Automatic annotation (TrEMBL):
Pfam family, one: ABC_tran
Keywords noted in UniProt: ATP-binding, Membrane, Nucleotide-binding, Transmembrane, Transmembrane helix, Transport
Name of protein: ABC transporter domain-containing protein
GO cellular component entries: membrane protein complex; plasma membrane
Organism encoding this protein: marine metagenome
Molecular function as annotated in GO: ATP binding; ATP hydrolysis activity; transmembrane transporter activity
Lineage: unclassified sequences, metagenomes, ecological metagenomes
């Protein structure tokens, strides 16, 4: 299989933490190849290295040694800004606790990752289409607290897909759901994968892992077993790597500022209106701090003149 047919590859990946004089090897020479269109379940007991591997694959942490290639790019050598772009454009995150913004409706939550995207020509209808894809077309204007747990997780999956990522990284996506809702979410992930989307799912549940095309079990920072159940699905079109980093800086800055003012500005305003006392106390603290600095500078200048 050629390099371009892999969604990701890690080779001899190590992550060592220093605790006092001791070294803890959270990952110890992990080798993993995930073809595009694969559906991988990662399992293991607590302390096996699942969370550490998750952080590495999500570009949330850097390895102590080894190589991590996302498609055909070595991301271990990229700057923090470049890694931020990759997290925003090329990896879709699905969280156990949903992590939806409570002040925004379904469409605005799904659209939020686009605030950080460098892509200029964004389809304005894509968020609404994704919401229909996950079965929430009649709840676009609902807030998260007006949705069930399963519906909130569907919104989280649509949000993960909005920038057409290389793969979806799902961290215990059914951990907070009942049996019926778990089946609905797994059915949705099955459908997305059958359409060609690459999925890496971390779980403790054997029933959940059984839905994947491949089960990887970890222990003591190493891969203990790697069982292939079914071949990978035929993939969607390869992601456009330049869509994250290929736009002119000035144009990207203006677009990002406009999106930030529209989306993030609204979040900030709604947060202040929802918690007026906290916002007032914060503003008062800032005012007192600035006034104190000005006062001390004035006293210092007065003493210097004398």
């Amino acid at each position: 299989m050629s390099e371009s047919q892999f969604a990701l590859r890690v080779s001899k990946l190590c992550r060592v933490y220093k605790i006092g004089e001791q070294e803890v090897r959270a990952l110890d020479g992990v080798d993993l190849e995930v073809p595009a269109g694969d559906y991988v379940a990662v399992m293991g007991p607590s302390g096996s290295g699942k969370s550490t591997l998750l952080n590495q694959l999500g570009c949330l942490d850097r390895p102590s040694s080894g190589e991590y290639r996302l498609e055909d790019e070595d991301v271990t050598k990229l700057s923090d800004d470049a890694l931020s772009d990759i997290r925003g454009c090329r990896i879709g995150f699905v969280f156990q606790s949903y992590n939806l913004i409570p002040y925004l409706d379904v469409v605005e939550n799904v659209r939020m990752p686009r605030s950080y995207s460098r892509e200029v020509d964004q389809d304005p209808e894509a968020p609404a289409e994704l919401i229909k894809t996950v079965g929430l077309g009649d709840r676009e204007d609902h807030l998260p607290q007006q949705l069930s747990g399963g519906q909130q997780q569907r919104v989280g999956i649509a949000r993960a897909l909005v920038n057409d990522p290389v793969f979806i990284l799902a961290d215990e996506p059914t951990g907070n759901l009942d049996t019926r809702t778990t089946k609905e979410i797994l059915d949705l992930l099955d459908r997305l994968n059958s359409e060609g989307k690459t999925i890496i799912l971390v779980t403790h549940e054997h029933d959940v892992a059984a839905r994947a095309r491949r089960v990887v079990k970890m222990r003591d920072g190493r891969i203990e077993s790697d069982e292939r159940v079914r071949p990978p699905a035929e993939t969607w079109k390869p992601s456009d790597i330049t869509s994250c980093t290929g736009q002119p800086f000035g144009l990207f800055s203006l677009l990002r500022l406009r999106r930030a003012c529209r989306n993030l500005g609204k979040v900030a305003l709604l947060s202040m209106l929802t918690h007026p006392m906290r916002s007032s106390l914060t503003a008062l603290g800032v005012f007192i701090g600035v006034a104190s600095v000005v006062w001390l500078l004035a006293i210092g200048e007065g003493i210097a003149e004398r």
